[in-house]
Amino acid sequence: MIINAQINNYKIIKQIGSGAFGLVYLCQDLNDPQRQYACKAILKQQSSTKNVEDPNLKKSNILQTQLYHYFKSLSYKIFLPSLNLDSLMNMPLDQLQSENSYYREIILHLRSNHLPNVVKINEILESSIAVFIFMNYYAMDLFTSIVDEQHFINNPLLIKKCFIQLAGLVKDLADIGIYHCDIKPENILLDSQDNIKLCDFGLATDKIFLNLDTCVGSSYYMAPERVSGTSDTVKEHVMGTRVNDRLKMMMSFSNGSQYPTVAGDIWSLTIILMNLLTTRNPWLKAIPTDNTFSHFIKNKKVLSKILDLSDDMLELLIGTENMGEAYISKNRRYNHLTDFESDPLAGVKLHGIMTLNPWERGDTEVLSYFIQRVAKSEQFLRDSVDPSTNKTIKGGRLGLVRPLEDFEIDEILHKRKQPQVFHDMNKEVSFEFLMNHFSRNSSFSNLNNKPNTIQSQQVTTTVVNTRENTMRTLSSTGSTLPRVNTLFDFPNSNYLNFNEENVERNNDQGSFFELSLENEAYNESKNNQSKSLNLNIQSFLNKMHSYSNFMEENDIDMSMKDSIFYQYNPTEF
């Protein structure tokens, strides 16, 4: 054991994980004892472990023994050189030799180090037997959170947040040519705000296509084309699937035995979604010898008997054509049979994201579709019956859930617009520009109402009662928000006090999401929601315009106008 050993300014506290070629330790920064890091030690001479006499001996055990003797020979205190992260990140992968293949994981991780949902690498130290990667430490992983803590058990909005972040990250990685190939709850960490952080790039690749039966990943989450023994099933579905022009073009870039790498990661996402919704896995492995999966191959509707998924989720996963004629007739908006050639995602919509044809889910646009469908869904689980009252519970354990607004999705995906600053304007012009800016997408019958035409108490009540909608709508403009309480003397003004610290943290996902992700008694109020929102914003804008007119008509001193407008002064940004 190397507990309490020291590597440069890091002290090893305990071992917290192990993998095929590495060990993970919790470390303390001796320069800042409040800071803790996760240190992954990767065995350098990985090829040498193939010739060990005992095939059951784990490579991590070999590393553990080697590290023990290494630290012991140096009195448990070593000082190592720090690698240049930029130089390492730009190293061409095709130049790696077998003796330094361990760099592949590090390089691919560094190339995604800028993504907010990837565990950040801070420093890399290298010794003669191992490389030590120091990363941000997160105590909770998704598996523990789902199964042990049951953190998602009654929180459908949190499920949406988690899944959207994960699917968005898979798309971001694919966009820069990285495919994780081992997406599972144990490799997904959670910070204190329940933002996901992906780790362990040990199986990651930059190859766009992988050969059929390339066995890579974890059994529960591996796609059929990656599991040995499923090749005939996959080929049968590829040959028997109707193909549009977009798929034909994609297939022309590979030989007949290769399939898109991203298709495997997307399959893993479908299993994780079921984990989040039901805390269960549908099968042990996606192979014909698995009894449950063999039934799924014959009839995808069997998924409804395995898990309590709603029709909306079933249709997303197994496709319209597997939902039956009654469902298609009732939900014409899901019937994509007529627009097969024009819709590039028609195959996924017809056969589901869990299609057994990797080509149909082997497109990053499938991820965008996946995100939108989960974000807009109003019911994850099917209805259940309360045994004590014999009453129907809409949406089962999770209930009904409100669909997310587009800007909320952008917020979760780190795509919130930056605040706009109005440069090269004096304060008087900027004030009028601000009025127009807030009303540019709105149509009101009279924007020049006199002050006595507005009932201030009515406006106050409207804004207070729908404060989350106000925050949500104003933030979606991407503008710097006014301090409403300084503009108007509202009673109960604490309801209108925006959390400015959160709003200004542009890179913190916990800002507007915390303000907006409340279900707002969606089950009972979804029909009235848009009406109250429109009344709220109309009253707010009318009040602002009336206030502006009041100042102009009464020849208010500009110094007063300056005091009202003080936080829009461009020089302060």
Automatic annotation (TrEMBL):
Annotated Pfam families: Pkinase
Gene3D superfamilies per UniProt: Phosphorylase Kinase, domain 1 (3.30.200.20), Transferase(Phosphotransferase) domain 1 (1.10.510.10)
Top-level taxon of the source organism: Eukaryota
Residue intervals of the Protein kinase domain: 10-381
A single Gene Ontology CC term: cytoplasm
Entry protein name: Protein kinase domain-containing protein
An example Gene Ontology molecular-function term: protein serine/threonine kinase activity
Annotated PROSITE patterns: PROTEIN_KINASE_ATP, PROTEIN_KINASE_DOM, PROTEIN_KINASE_ST
Keyword list, A-Z: ATP-binding, Nucleotide-binding
One GO biological process term: regulation of autophagy
Positions bound to ATP: K44
